[in-house]
Write a structure and sequence with these properties.
The complex is a heterotrimer.
Chain A lengths: L11 H26 L10 H15 L1 H32 L1 H14 L8 H8 L4 H24 L3 H9 L4 H43 L7 H11 L4 H29 L6
Helix pairs in contact in A: 2-10, 3-4, 3-6, 3-8, 3-9, 5-6, 6-8, 7-8, 8-9, 8-10, 9-10
Chain B lengths: L17 H7 L6 H4 L2 H33 L8 H13 L2 H33 L1 H14 L8 H8 L4 H24 L3 H8 L6 H38 L4 H10 L3 H29 L10
Chain C lengths: L9 E11 L6 E12 L4 E5 L6 H9 L6 E6 L2 E2 L7 E4 L11 H5 L1 H5 L8 H14 L15 H14 L4 E5 L7 H15 L10 E5 L3 H7 L2 E6 L4 E7 L14 H18 L1
Parallel strand pairs in C: 3-8, 3-9, 6-7, 7-8
Antiparallel strand pairs in C: 1-2, 1-4, 4-5, 9-10
Helix pairs in contact in C: 4-5, 7-8
Classes of the chains: A mainly alpha, B mainly alpha, C alpha/beta.
Chain lengths: 270, 295, 270
């Protein structure tokens, strides 16, 4: 994104670049606000000004931060489940052609089954609390991790492993010092993608569970908060605030993981 | 100006012939034409066999878990699920819901393609268009399609439009991004080569840029499909009166687990078949990109 | 050297090219002070150490880039941009991967300027003629990825010739081939070019190579370039009889040319 330019030290060219980048979004917001001014005062339609006000309200008294934290917490837990199972299985399938051939049909059959499709099943199993959401998140995060790990492990240049063997390096060290670093970029990519889908999945799951279980205050995370705004308090400004928060968090997660990738793998030039 | 009446007689001489081919060695054949036909058939049979065996094992494990679990509502027997699928097929409900979901998908993909691909070409070819539009795209992209559901529910209500809207949104981004990337990454040497042959303007677009970008666009299309197929289920689950997503939730509320599981399986099957079709389409449209990591 | 005709086919006067990196503004002087006159029907080879700007000069003559200073004229008129009268054979052939051999050979004829004065039937006949000329009739319907390196090179050559350019610009066209194929194709290239024909009937060729023996074998004159900054060090005439005998490759003039660039070549890898 072009908005990471520090205004103070901008040269002429970068300043125009920044302005150019902001043009369309600003025009959009301004047009929206102008349109909103034409709404009748009782209309629930959202406007930028109200959205900002609602945001402040929600942060101070409405539990927005708590709800976000709750959703994030669930994502992290589900992600960790997926990380361990996905990477372990991925490493196994990536290194053994036999295992891969046998498990592939099952994995590939489940791939087109979206996480949300399993939600009713998860509710059947776990009820309507936190558990089905966790399950959906773990399921969603599992596939990117698994597939990218398989890809990464299987593409490790055989010559590197052979070179290690010709230097008398024991198998365990080959695994940790050759295969793992070689596969790491792919695994981290899978982790970043998995985290992204996991965040989407938790919102979806909370939204759907919220739709089934009714008002639960802030016990249901952001997704449920959005649903409450839709179905009960009909607060469209609140919905928009939640949407923006969802987007911002997604962006932050992505940046965080990219940063981690950069740090953990200094030998890769981006 | 080229001289078409060039008086230089090209001496045909001995064409660079078989002896030269021998010197160069056998040209590398494409992977699938290398092996003789019967070997390929045997390999395909072997894959089918392994797949069937794995499925059989999966169902066996499922059955054992069913017995161990004891609650047929939580985990129905695979036999009951198979029976449920059969029933749904016979009385047409299966095809009805599947057809509705799929038709929504098709509509959404068409709309998304019509919007995203031309925009992607514009952004890929013209820097200013990219600089103006890209920030807006990057701002909207992190807001997942799912997050739009409540707002969209309010605007469109429960019905047909909601799933299509969400799907168009979800499909839009991979198509756009991949189109831009595809256009930008057309091998510049191919463009140079065409220019040195006096090809420019519209023929240059048609003959070089579009085919050059097509493999990446196809990948974007498959990504768009995958995202849209996931989104349609979610959208139907929450906000539509028909379709596969609706069906799963409907039967869950009725605690008719075999049908729930049956529809889940159908979701997988339809998704798989669509992806197969897309891959075949990809092979037909961009046969030269096979094995280059673009499929 | 034969008597030069009135107007040289190509004339470079005080040509220089400076590259400016877009982000950092860093300037690199690729070539400077290039003065060359190339006569119609000549076969000119350009040799020099890595980075001496051989490809840059070729790109300038092709019109794919513009000189920072100086002029480039063809038949007395300054060149404007690329055109089919100065055909280019690129280092990695630049074949359209989505087109068959036949379509690639006919690309310029069908979609560019070379085919303008032909009827569609004449174009197709010309395409067939050139496909046969390079011996690829049997592979006519194949795609580039199904061809060996040598076959791709022949497609590129057929395409170049089919477009009927006055000047052939070739950037290390034999570079990607193994040594034996290379030797064979050098002979074939000379024969197709028509080395036994009188000069008026031959095309003008500018051929970049780093193989000095190849340059001596092929050329009427060898332009020796030097590095830092790129410039023409010397132009060595090769007054050996045609058709060239195999022994020409090890003629003393090859040693002489190597002597000119040896020091710089060593420095280039230091």
């Amino acid at each position: 994104m072009t908005t990471d330019a520090a205004p103070a030290a901008l040269s002429g060219a970068r300043w125009t670049g920044f302005l150019q980048a902001m043009l369309l979004p600003v025009v959009f917001v301004v047009a929206w606000q102008l349109l909103a001014l034409t709404f009748p005062p009782e209309s629930p339609a959202p406007s930028p000004a109200h959205v900002v006000r609602t945001f402040v309200d929600l942060v101070t008294t409405g539990g927005l931060v708590q709800a976000t934290a709750q959703s994030l917490g669930r994502v992290v837990i589900g992600f960790l489940f997926a990380l361990i199972s996905g990477v372990a299985l991925g490493a196994l399938m990536g290194s053994s052609e036999r295992v891969k051939d046998n498990l592939d049909p099952i994995i590939e059959s489940f791939r087109p089954i979206a996480p949300m499709a399993l939600l009713p099943m998860a509710i059947l199993w776990f009820g309507t609390g936190t558990a089905p959401s966790l399950f959906i998140v773990a399921y969603a995060a599992f596939f990117p991790l698994l597939l990218n790990t398989i890809h990464a492990v299987s593409r490790v240049d055989r010559k590197l492993v052979l070179a290690g063997m010709t230097m008398g390096i024991p198998r365990s060290t080959i695994l940790s010092r050759i295969i793992l670093p070689a596969a790491l970029p792919g695994v981290l990519l899978g982790a970043r993608l998995a985290m992204g889908v996991a965040w989407t999945a938790i919102i979806a799951a909370e939204l759907a569970v919220g739709a089934k279980s009714g008002v639960g205050g802030t016990s249901g995370g952001i997704g449920q908060m959005m649903f409450v705004f839709y179905a009960y308090s009909v607060d469209l400004n609140g919905i928009v605030v939640c949407m923006i928060v969802v987007g911002v968090v997604a962006l932050l997660i992505d940046r965080l993981f990219r940063f981690a990738e950069h740090r953990l793998m200094p030998w890769r030039h981006r | 100006m080229p001289n078409p009446d060039d008086a230089t007689p090209l001496t045909a001489g001995s064409p660079l012939s078989a002896s030269l081919d021998e010197a160069e060695g056998v040209p590398p054949a494409a992977a699938d034409t290398a092996a003789p036909a019967d070997v390929r058939i045997r390999l395909a049979h072997r894959r089918w066999f392994i797949a069937l065996r794995s499925f059989a094992a999966f169902i066996a494990v499922w059955y054992l878990m069913f017995l161990w679990n004891g609650n047929p509502i939580q985990l129905p027997s695979p036999l009951r699920v198979a029976n449920a699928i059969w029933q749904l097929a016979i009385d047409g409900e299966l095809f009805e819901h599947a057809g509705i979901s799929t038709s929504r998908l098709v509509v959404a993909l068409i709309v998304a393609t019509v919007v995203a691909v031309p925009l992607g070409f514009a952004m890929g070819l013209y820097r200013t268009a990219d600089k103006l539009i890209d920030p807006m795209v990057e701002l909207l992209r992190p807001i997942s399609g799912i997050a739009w559901i409540p707002l969209a529910l309010f605007i469109f209500g429960v019905g047909n439009v909601l799933p299509v809207f969400i799907m168009v949104y979800v499909a839009f981004f991979p198509l756009l991004l991949n189109t831009v990337s595809g256009v930008r990454n057309v091998d510049p040497r191919l463009v140079s080569a065409a220019r040195t042959m006096g090809v420019h303007g519209w023929p240059l677009m048609r003959q070089v840029i579009v085919p050059g970008a097509l493999p990446t666009i196809m990948v974007g299309f498959r990504l768009a499909f995958a995202g849209a197929w996931a989104a349609v289920i979610a959208a139907e689950l929450i906000g539509a009166p028909s379709g596969l997503g609706f069906a799963i939730e409907w039967y869950r509320q009725l605690l008719m687990s075999p049908k729930v599981f049956g529809f889940i399986a159908i979701i997988g099957v339809v998704g798989y078949l669509c992806d197969l079709a897309l891959r075949a389409l990809q092979r037909r449209l961009t046969p030269w990109a096979e094995g280059t990591g673009l499929s | 050297m034969k008597t030069a005709p009135a107007t040289p086919k190509l004339k470079l006067t005080n040509v220089s090219k400076q590259f400016v990196a877009p982000l950092t503004g860093h300037r690199t002087l690729a070539v400077t002070g290039v003065d060359l006159e190339i006569n119609a029907g000549e076969f000119v080879c350009v040799v020099g150490p890595s980075g001496c700007g051989k490809s840059t000069v070729l790109n300038l003559i092709a019109g794919l880039d513009t000189p920072t200073t100086g002029t480039i004229e063809m038949d007395g008129a300054p060149i404007r941009g690329p055109g089919a009268e100065r055909g280019v054979m690129f280092q990695d052939y630049a074949l359209m991967p989505w087109q068959t051999v036949r379509d690639n050979v006919g690309f310029g004829l069908r979609h560019g300027t070379p085919g303008r004065n032909f009827s569609p039937d004449e174009r197709e006949a010309r395409i067939s003629e050139h496909v046969e000329l390079v011996g690829l009739k049997r592979a006519e319907k194949k795609y580039p990825h199904q061809l060996s390196g040598g076959m791709r090179q022949r497609v590129a050559l057929a395409r170049l010739l089919a477009n009927g350019p006055d000047v052939l610009l070739m950037d290390e066209p034999l570079g990607a081939l193994d040594a034996q194929t290379r030797l064979i194709l050098q002979v074939e290239l000379l024969r197709i070019w028509g080395e036994t024909l009188p000069r008026e009937k031959r095309k003008t060729v500018i051929f970049i190579t780093h193989e000095i023996s190849e340059a001596v074998f092929l050329a009427d004159r060898v332009v020796v370039m030097s590095n830092n900054p790129g410039s023409v060090k010397s132009v060595v005439p090769i007054d050996l009889p045609r058709p060239r005998a195999e022994a020409v490759r090890s003629h003393p003039v090859a040693e002489q040319i190597w002597g000119m660039i040896k020091d710089e070549a060593y420095r280039a890898i230091a």
